[in-house]
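Side project, low priority. Logging it here so it doesn't get lost.
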Amino acid sequence: MNLFTPLSWSDTGFILTGILNTVFISVVAIIVGTLLGVVIGFVRAESSKSVNIILGAFLDILRSVPLIIQLILFSTFIGAVGYPLDPFVAGSIILSLYTMAFMGEVFRSGFNSVPTSMIKASRSLGMSYWQTVRYVRIPIGMRAVFTSWLGVALSVIKDSALVSVIGYMELLRTAEQLISRTQQPVMILIGVGLFYFMISYPLSLYGKHVERKMAI
């Protein structure tokens, strides 16, 4: 390998570690953020105006403050109070909450998209409130927002690169260390960009395919 580039075969494992760490923290954030988002979305769809104002203000803060600032502030604060966290744990918490803030709005719109007439019809057939939620509102609402959910998930994968600021060894931080050693920024960053493209583009195509199949 080093006949053409300063990279050596030993760097392969280093790069692979960065890729796996990126995928791992992204999957954790998407799963946790989605589950929390479903709860938040349902609560906002069913709650009074006052509850919506409080929850909305909290979610607006999470969405409005840049993720990199949230990561640095949280990691610094936790360390200052004497409970330093592993970069993966700290990054997962903030990235999951950040994901939740966007997923909450996605799922709220999904729950609200179910026609009132359909809800009343299910209740008239003898379904309980929670049966209506489980068999009517969730399936129909989630179908309506699948594309939006996928868009948020793709953003999370790319935003996971920011976790490198608190020391998590994901792909971008791995690339930075290789650039520092090899002085080959263009080649390495092109490789990083290709990795994100190879993940994001197929998922984007899949989302469009699913959207066409689910179109009414």
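Brief comment: The first helix runs from residue 10 to 46.
Revisit when time allows.
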